[in-house]
Amino acid sequence: MTDGSERRPDSHPLSRKAFLRGMAAAGAAPLMPALVTGAAHAATTEAGAGAADFPLVVNGAATAVLVAEADDPAVARAAGDLCADVERVSGVRPRLVRDGAELPGLAVVVGTLGASPVVDRLVAEGRLDVSRVAGRWEASVTQVVERPVEGVERALVIAGSDRRGTVYGIYDLSERIGVSPWYWWADVPVERRDTVTVEAATVKRHEPSVRYRGIFINDEQNLTTWSHRTQETDKNIGPETYRRVFELILRLKANYLWPAMHPYSDFFNKHRENPRLADSYGIVVGSSHPEALLRNGVHEWHPWAAGHPNADGTLPVYDYTVNPTTISDYWRARARENAAYESSWTIGMRGLHDSALETKHATTVEEKVAVMNDIVAAQRQILAEEVGDRATSQIFIPYKEVLDLYNAGVRVPDDVTLVWPDDNHGNLRQLPTEQERARSGGNGLYYHISYWGRPKSYLWLDTTQLAKIWQELRRAYEHRVDRVWIFNVGDLKSQENGLSFCMDMAWDVDRWDADSVEDFVEEWAGRQFGRRHGREIAEIRTEYYRLAAELRPEFVARGQFSLTAHGDEMGRRMAAYQALLDRTQALGATLPPAYQDAFFELVEYPVHGAFRMNLKFYWAERNALAVAQGRGAGVNTYAKLANAAHAKEVALTTRYNSQVAGGKWNGIVNPYPSQIPKAPGRPTVVTVPAADTAGLGVAAEGNANGAEQPLRFSSYTRDVRFVDLFNTGFAAVGWHATVSAPWVRLSTDAGTFTDQTRVRVEIDWDGVPEGVQEATVAFTGAGGEVSVPVKVVNDGERGRRRARGYVEANGYVCVDAAHYDGRRAGGGAEWQRVRGLGRRAGAMLASPSTADPFTRQLAERAPQLWYRVRFVTAGTFPVTVFRLPSLDERGARRVAVALDGQEPVTLAGQAIATGNRGDAWARNVEEGVEKLVAALTVDAPGEHVLRVFMVDPAIAVDQIVVDTGGLQASYLAPPESYHPVFNRHAAQVKWLPDGE
């Protein structure tokens, strides 16, 4: 049954076809990145009415670029980047002209409304259409105008509503001619060509969805190391690095920065060129939650305290209940110093270096609330006196314990933006009420795609699923959280894909929907590597994110995955990683040399690094199991493989830092930095002394050792099982196998091994009789014999053909939530499939996030999903709903299940982020799912309908598992059960070989 949902038509007609036409007009080479750019975001385009394409470079001559002397320095500077970009493409650099004298017959005219006489005159004459641009925030228009000024026959005019609107129009043109925003930060090559033209269509870039959009450089030890080694050896992140950061921010259509703030970095205002430079680029500089009024407490408080001792000579402490005057003077000095710049002022207070608020003379929550209110009032007075009308952007960030104080009664002025934090793992904790949504200051979001802290840190790779980001950002926007979006990007490098998506969402939140997030990756990859590779890279990245959703590589530890259940759960995961790496490297081998560095940075290193991180723990787990099984040679083999996998991971990172781009990125990537949390290092393994002995050991699938549990087979899933034969010594073991029934098939029935061999066992379904059958496989070698029992349930082809939905087999039913047989909307809400979300191909999301909860008459009123299930056993069984761990600290996280017409059972998930290690919230964010368990009663074997009901909005369901008595313990859900539509053919399981 189809769901009847419809995909919205593309509301941005420039997004694909128009840019492909633009490529053709530009004479793009086959590998040239597709010109699908920011012009398509929140944009409209109008046909050029047959006008000729506008030339930027023809016959070795480049069209000059005109910027009025009166325009903002940020505009002139970006126009200089445009000239450099044209030169990158063509080898010819346009002249940058600051007045209209001596212009040739063609020109690119760049100007801001109200600052460019040429642009203003064209508007006044009705020759430049600025509807939906003039008076808007950061909007712009690009339009070809005939005879704009005397002596110029034709001009490409880029006009912005304000300075950044003009800058974005400039960078949009750069991207349209083939210069990626990541040309420097990820070494994306610029394809050269002699003729450069752009389509003559009028393009309008409307107001962005979110006003302030930016990044927080945080936990930045690697970035600091790299900056000190390669950019400014006398500084630890200074103006030369920030110059590159500012340019990237603008090319990504962003405007906002919280700069680096940790002890190993120079604080931003240490180098006074930094704020001046930011303002000249048009970047709004703010500061994080512990950095009130642009003060970096880590570096600045102690020198200030030393220079402002108490009357008795002691040093003042950073406690407003003890030293309010000294602290206020400290804040005031920075407000006065930076008053001339476009800044975002963080108000409120926390302790130094992101610690909790210190209040010696306020111990109760009520007293601390009063202190915070006094702090906010004092800071507001400082800003009014020192900054005045320029202090238009003020934010209050209720992060960690400050959120508790805010909820307890802190009064934040109405014109201050409330910036709501996530739980540090990508789950929004709390969203504004209707009253808070009506605030004149609006609401913002502080969101992590990189994090240091409890319960575990993820700082190394970009591992947050884009569909997860979409889910949470969409939810924020639906609750009118649209004034500020700031993203914690750690060291910046390795977050290229995730950051690009975040900025794309912030620019136009409606451009990507639940069904098209992977399309973003295709388009983005096409811009970096050529559109013919976009789909392949998108599929690679989607699978990479899916595997990380099972478990982030930074979270890998001992004892997580099973080596014995469900076809070797951990081995299956490694097979998926191996296949992904093979696919990645095969694609990389087809790219020209110029693309190799960018491909390694953006595609191969994340995949390969995650593979190696998981692989070393896979071999370490095999090593531990080998010890427990009493193996001989296998113990040492797996120890060697674990150590080798770690060594290759280290070598891979060394390649990144010392070889890629000629060593440009020396120090930028390091899973094991010295001063911040590390990714898992070399796992501990053991070895045993060699002995000239031999012995046959057997471990059948489902057994850590021996064969107590039989190998189970179903005619629906048509399983492939395994038996591991291993050596208890070190001398070679010869072996052979016999089967008691001709319909039992082995991948091999004889051989010799030193440490182990894996035998695959499957059934000849054409030969096995119907019904329940039993057989044995006997393995003989080294003077011993072990018999492995086999149990087969064969319903025959008629049984398979009669199946209308999922079929119980091997003691369980496993359903992928996105593979539903039907769904029903209700009460203005529905279950929405989100591609690329969760541990499988997609998850079901209760939408919209603003819907009211359903708390009564669920069967009649609530949106529901249903799944047809054929049970072969009756009884009361546990059902586990795997839901993605979203939060709602002002509400609840509930979903309900029922079988047939039975009363729905409501399951309540974790709604609060505790911040503790080892509790339910910690387990949920580490595993990426929360397992909600109820009981279902199957009154009789046969066909039934499993129903899932929405109770609370914005909850996402990934998988549903019913244990009918045979479910083996595992980290992941078992393989999906047979379904005639969604899972008709059982996957042929592949395993990694014993070595590499």
From TrEMBL:
Signal sequence bounds: 1-42
Domain of life: Bacteria
InterPro entries for the chain: GH115, GH115_C, GH115_sf, Hex-like_dom2, TAT_signal
Single GO MF descriptor: hydrolase activity
Presence of keyword Membrane: no
A Pfam cross-reference name: Glyco_hydro_115
Gylcosyl hydrolase 115 C-terminal domain boundaries: 805-976
Assigned keywords, A-Z: Hydrolase, Signal
Protein name: Glycosyl hydrolase 115 family protein
Organism name: Streptomyces galilaeus
